[in-house]
Amino acid sequence: MRLVGPSGEQVGIVPLAKALELAQEYDLDLVEVAANARPPVCKLMDYGKFKYESAMKAREARKNQAHTVIKEMKLRPKIDPHDYDTKKGHVVRFLKQGDKVKITIMFRGREQSRPELGYRLLQRLAEDVQDLGFVESNPKQDGRNMIMVLGPHKKKTEAMAEARQAQEARKAEAKANPGKSQNAAAAEATAEAPAEA
Question: What is the CA radius of gyration of the chain?
Answer without folding.
Answer: 30
